[in-house]
């Protein structure tokens, strides 16, 4: 079946910044067939974009989608990971909550124009199940942690779950299994090496939290190391490594990351809300280190919207380097699309509107008051737009969002289901009430 | 006529943070009569808020609402004020554009929950006209500038327009005329003193851009001064002074501001996007200097949404001071409401939900994906919500927004009118195309 998206302001995100003010995109079976303007081809189904901005779906490089129940809980609480997040996860997380949370989070991402996401959590098989029920593309990994987790007693359990997961989804179309040790100080050296071995053996992406926490930095500094130099010593630096956060990087870290092809999942919404710092992305880019945006989980960000990341990225980089001209808007839109694809080694399939590329597309309505005028559409996307402006989304060739509504399932109904499933979770949270 | 807003999560913003999970607010003739929960009073008109968050309307302390035509133009261009904004204003601004832009901007603000704004621009009488046609409260001032402006050849012209304006609106209910010299380096000493004299004579607020620009800081530093110490020398520091921006403040500046009761209109969206810096608001607050949020104009911010300011404020202050616990969400909501009221000496009328206060209210829908769960409603407002979540707005007792639509006029129709009026403006902009 051929689908024609017409009357759109198409931003192709190609090398020449080609755009069509009254353009169209023709898709068939999950692929883009044609993009252009003028005489439109025939199609079985036609979507009138009414002048909306049509661009590739966003790529979210770091998420824990299932953490929806934690949203707005203890947002301003220092050291929340150790003080209530880890404990509460261990006490109250169930496979059902992970499944429902993931499905809710995926719905939220689709509604905000994201069509590919990277996720690491527990019971990741439940995340995969939710993902397969939708049009979303998932790079999913079971978290390996050297302490008790909701679904394993030790790092050995996490490694076993990871390998099972790698095998189970090896041939999946929309799910790419990845390896996901939690972080540089929360996983033993042996388990980190085992993760790297799995990543190499299966040709799978490896992702972890790195150079994020103050205590992490202190821990390594005391040994004359940085998190990145430590990972280098263990042999984890490679172009399969997608390092999340990377707030605190030395010149030498950047040099090593560039030399080994390491990629950065930049989570500015999460980092800035926690007051942790602003990653030196300008310096990473000047060394040609690939990077893209991650929302982090819904209790970190607190939204799963890449629009929020784009805007926060713009203002924090410009402020950090005291330079208004740094990262013009259109470059930022490119990092949110092609940049993310490059980090996943998917730049020949995702992140552009061109024949042969995946039919992962979004249409941004210009109806909202803040979307006028549209002198520069990239500027409007970065500085004005928000998740609620996303009108239609096509994921893997399927129209999954039409006029701001999911087509495949009801988010309000899912919310009610999640509310019921959360009662035990909220009960368990009671004992942390003073800090959350 | 009595209006009852029912089934709302009411945040009163009083000293005790009183909230009602299933609460109501009763209004009559522009005033709040009653707030509570349980048995509801009789009313002539009932609005079911369906569990939405009900709070006081936001107060926007710094705006140039009419600058809508400039939005997304040259966002990443350094020194844009002198390179194209001032020149283009002088070449292409007309009273009609100011009127239509103001009306559009006011519509955008009402749609995003703002019910009071401070504005300074040219042809300010046209802004007043637009304001009077809506339910918005405006603190409006004609800009005094010691160079040619769109509506005067010299500062003398601006001063004359200011005095006319002060007289014309002296008795207005919803418009408070103010005195608005442009900035510390763009207005002569004599004109600044004349502005202060007018402000004192008419008991009017005085607002200007201060401690914002790099060149402004250098200019005063070369004379052993700061913008604030210069204003002090001229006798402009008083509790009638609402200083916009205040990015670069010394300890002594803060001391002087506190001693004289100066207020800050903090414009973080504008400041951060320009890479100018982050105002030391924590230090201002520790000296009890009143502050609130300003969006700046729609080409600075780029939205007129106080939600965007709240979130950017949270993340930039926490990052600047490396402290996640700084400014918990509920305090930020208070600055956006009561804080703004205090800056305008309106804290006994605006910014709280209590009997006798103005019926300036907003209801935030919790339908959007990012608004669930609502463990902490203040957190949801600061970290998750955006302008598009505003469901209903009451301004001065009138329901001006119902279910995300203006009730008094059509924004799409206004947009078409503005588009037509902008053709000459876009023609004039052509010569700046390379930088914008």
Give a topology summary.
2 copies of one chain form a homodimer.
Chain A: E1 2-11, E2 19-28, E3 31-37, E4 45-48, E5 53-56, E6 58-63, H1 80-92, H2 95-111, E7 114-121, H3 124-132, E8 137-144, H4 155-168, E9 175-177, E10 180-181, H5 189-202, E11 206-210, H6 214-221, H7 227-233, E12 241-245, H8 251-260, E13 263-266, H9 268-273, H10 281-286, E14 291-293, H11 306-320, H12 329-343, E15 361-364, H13 377-384, E16 390-395, E17 398-402, E18 405-406, H14 411-421, H15 423-429
Parallel strand pairs in A: 1-4, 1-5, 6-7, 7-8, 8-9, 8-10, 11-12, 12-13, 13-14
Antiparallel strand pairs in A: 1-2, 2-3, 5-15, 15-16, 16-17, 17-18
Helix pairs in contact in A: 1-15, 2-3, 2-14, 4-5, 11-12, 11-13, 12-13
Largest sheet report of chain A: 9 strands, mixed
Q: Find the biggest chain interface.
A: A-B, 72 and 71 residues
The tally of structural domains of chain A comes to 2
Average pLDDT of chain A: 97
Radius of gyration of chain A: 21 Å
Uncertain spans of chain A, ≥5 residues at pLDDT below 50?
Answer: none
The share of residues in helices of chain A is: 25-40%
Shape of chain A: globular
User: What is the C-level CATH assignment of the largest domain in chain A?
Assistant: Alpha Beta
For the record, what is the CATH homologous superfamily label of the largest domain in chain A?
Answer: Metal-dependent hydrolases
- State the separation between the terminal residues of chain A, measured CA to CA: 50 Å
Q: Which structural class should the secondary elements of chain A be placed in?
A: alpha/beta
Q: Which strand-content bin applies to the residues of chain A?
A: 15-25%
